Amino acid sequence: MMTIPPVVRPAKPFDLELVKVTKRFGSFVANDQISLKVPAGTFHALLGENGAGKSTLVKCIMGFHQAEEGDILVHGHSREINSPYDAYQFGIGMVYQHFTLVPAMTVAENLVLSRPDTPGIINWKDEMARLREFMQTAPFKMDLDTPASELAAGQKQKVEILKQLYLDSKFLILDEPTSVLTPSEADEVLGLIRDKVKAGDLSVLLITHKFREVFGFCDEITVLRRGQFAGHGLVKDLTADDMAAMMMGGQRETKIVPKAVRERGPAGLEIKGLCANKDNGVPALTNLNLTVHEGEVVGIAGVSGNGQRELVEVLAGQRPATGGELVVHGASYHGTRAETAEHGFFLLPEEPLRNACVPQMSVAENIAFRSFDRPPMTRAGCLVSRAAIRSFAQDLITRFSVKTRSPETPIGDLSGGNVQRAVLARELGPGTARVLIAANPCFGLDFAAVESIHGQITEARNRGVAVLLVSEDLDELLALADRLLVISHGEFVYETTPAQADIKTIGHHMAGH
């Protein structure tokens, strides 16, 4: 009988293998007999549409879920992983799709907190010296004293990656780690991780939807489709069409929603001299002026942390302005529920599970947030009809291809892409939008979902909606926007059109040059 070696946290990268892993949630089979192997010291991509079972599979590796069937082999030995601490003991770390930072704590405190051996009494002099030494070799620099609550989405993602590098994990799972990074930041981060793989310091399993990242950094791929194994291969032997065919299960006709040629309509949204502060009182926005007309998409580009988050929060009524005015359809606008209904003011925020949903409530209830207090959702002015809510939600779930077990499923159980689809269904489904604010609307989505959302945004623009698109994906902005502005240090510093855009010039302005 073979003796299984005791758990000793590894000093070198190792291979990890899944053998016929099956995970069920009631009658729903999320992972069905899936096998894959990541050899030691390689960079492996896990691909698949949203809802294909990728996140569930890696959560089985991390010990959040326990598979009903199958085996997990760590360095050739069967291992039982019942918690993230077990995974840590085996040298496995993960950067999650949703942020795990403690908002009230600083970057330094979050890094120290991530260590399971953090002492009850912390010697901060020694810890800060250790952190500063670590930051010298990090792929990007972060202010260790900044509270996590003041970080933009891209900055938070960087800290999540830093946590795992700081923990010295030897097998790293990355769940969409570059979704809110600029292309240069993404290349920097993945380039550093790739260098560690080539140097024999890491094994990596990367969940991504960006073929550019697969071709640029990965050695092998495994593809899932509808919870099942759909293909595997060496990146050097595959084309993008090969990968797409494995992911999609054959050819699909791409839906193209062309931009309508139309005269620019009247002003839908006017931003006049807008000023706002960060959470710590430091100015985030300074004298912003912008008009978004009906029937156009105005794109805002910028490196994360330059005021985009504060701008969207002011527009959403989540943050007070310290100066200036918002005007919608000629009337002063303050973000109240009555005003949003009157003016058809709708919002697709970044991090929708945190900013636009109640995770514990059902998909149907979340979709009904805009209209639950109006007919046909209510009767006699106060009686809520659950049947009407369910019927309304089911129609939108079908129209927007939201993958959920049922309308009663808690929305927090959905994959990130399907949460965004549900929010999109709520905001655009009724067809009453006249102003739409979209902030990183395709964060963490696969290319099919991106295509769908881009089509919905363009369709809204074509029927006269004034669209403000805030995104850190420059390709997305160039594809959708009629006008493009760059924001840097809380100010608009450059304006162009996609037809006249020079990428190098835009990049210089984004970098503050």
Give a brief outline of the structure.
Helix content is 32%, strand content 25%.
Describe the model.
It contains 17 helices and 22 strands. It has helices at 54-62, 84-89, 107-113, 124-136, 153-166, 183-198, 211-217, 240-248, 308-315, 337-343, 352-355, 363-367, 386-399, 416-428, 447-462, 474-480, 503-510; strands at 16-25, 28-38, 43-47, 69-74, 77-78, 92-95, 171-175, 203-207, 220-225, 228-234, 267-277, 283-293, 297-301, 323-328, 331-332, 345-348, 378-379, 383-384, 435-439, 466-470, 483-488, 491-496. The model is unreliable at 251-255 (pLDDT under 50). The protein is an alpha/beta fold. Helices cover 32% and strands 25% of the residues. The chain folds into two domains: 16-248, P-loop containing nucleotide triphosphate hydrolases (Rossmann fold, 3-Layer(aba) Sandwich), CATH 3.40.50.300; 295-320 and 334-510, P-loop containing nucleotide triphosphate hydrolases (Rossmann fold).
Structural class: alpha/beta
Give the class-level CATH name of the largest domain. Answer: Alpha Beta
Q: Summarize the main sheet.
A: 6 strands, mixed
- Give start-end ranges of low-pLDDT stretches: 251-255
Our count of helices gives 17
